[in-house]
Structure formats: structure tokens, C-alpha cells
Amino acid sequence: MNMRDYNEKMLTIPSKRDDLQLAAEQSVDGPGFLITSVEQLSGLAQARSLWPVTMGLACCAIEMMGAGTPRFDMSRFGWEIFRASPRHADVMIVSGRVSHKMAPIVRNVYDSMPEPKWVISMGACASSGGVFNNYAIVQGCDHIVPVDIYLPGCPPRPEMLINAMLELTRQIERRPIFSHREEIARAVEAAALAAAPVSEMKGQLA
To answer: How far apart are CA 40 and CA 136, in angstroms?
Structure first.
């Protein structure tokens, strides 16, 4: 499945039809044709050449390795190379539980990565501590590093990781790099505050 087919499939999902972030981004006037084209070209190049850093913390790392095998073949999306050095990588996949002993090392790896960089929190343990609600485990890696994509599951399948990677690709493709990014951030925040609370979202049950 190529990216165009993936985006069309995403539009068939009810939760993806009304994208508040995309609507807020489109409500902001762009800086002009030339700069907008440069942004699109830059986002397309970055989204198709992401290099994850080699870092496995727990059982989710086995599923992350599985995503790179021929059966799932995430290299078809440009994510082929896992770099052993964080200075050569731009994506961190936090795969598994993060202990307080490991937290400074995870942060050190993140700080060693060059900008721009992104983080995927893979699995329930990385996202919220999972079943390890105790003093030894950090209750969510967003206490250590900023997270762009949360991937649920215990452990999530390689297909779920590939879907999270494609969602991150969509975000990077739309990422503004010039001065109007602040206006877009304000518009997205205003749209999020104006949205209906999760407790009132009944979806198809209404």
C-alpha cells in the first residue's frame, strides 16, 4: 500500500474524517506559493527518509524488530535503517517499560539526536507504565521526552507500529518550518480547546 492509498483509507475511518488539526492548519493563511512549496518538499523528503535509533527496552522491542523483517518490511516506507548512533537518527521508538534507572540514558540518547527529531511511545508500558504501577517504572515516557505518537497495546503488533509510523509520516509532511508555524500552533490549540470533551463523544453510539 502506497501513501496515497493509505491517506484515502484513513478518510473512510469516522474518527479521521473531521481532523481538527488539519482544519486549523488550513485556516491559517500560508506565507506564499514559493515558501509553501519549499515546506511541502522538505516535509516530503523528511517523511520518506526517517532513521530510527537502535534502542530496545523490553518486550515491545521484539515486535519492533519484527516490523523490520521481510514479512512486514517497513523499509518500503523509507524506515529501513536503524542507526546505532543517535547522532545519525531522527526518530526514537521507546519500545517497552522505562525504569527510573534507565530514564537518564533514554534522555541522553534523545538529547544526542539532531533536530528535527520525533518520538513514538510504543506499548502501554512506555505510554503509561502499563501494569507496572510501582516505584521502579516511569509512568509514561512523556515524563522524560516529548512524545509525538502514542501506540497502545501490550505488546502492539508490527502492523500497529507501521500504522503509527505512517501517522507520524503524515504529521511530518504537514509540519511548518517557517514563521507561520506559531500561528498554526495557536490555531490548533484553540481548536483543541473548543472541541467536545471526550466524555461527550458518543460516536456511532449516539
So the answer is: 43
Per residue of the chain (206 residues), what is the pLDDT tens digit? Answer: 555 676 666 666 655 555 666 666 555 555 554 555 666 666 666 667 788 888 888 888 888 888 888 888 888 877 878 888 888 888 898 888 888 888 899 899 888 888 888 888 988 888 888 888 888 888 888 888 888 888 888 888 988 888 888 888 887 877 666 555 566 667 767 777 777 776 776 655 54
Per the CB < 8 A criterion, the answer to whether 149 and 121 are in contact is yes
3-class secondary structure per residue, 151-169:
ECCCCCCHHHHHHHHHHHH
Residue 60 known to bind ligand:
yes
Model pTM?
Answer: 0.70
Q: Tell me if 190 sits within 8 A of 27, measured CB to CB.
A: no
Topology given in CATH for the domain delimited by 51-195: Rossmann fold (3.40.50)
Query: Does 141 show up as a binding residue in the annotation?
Result: no
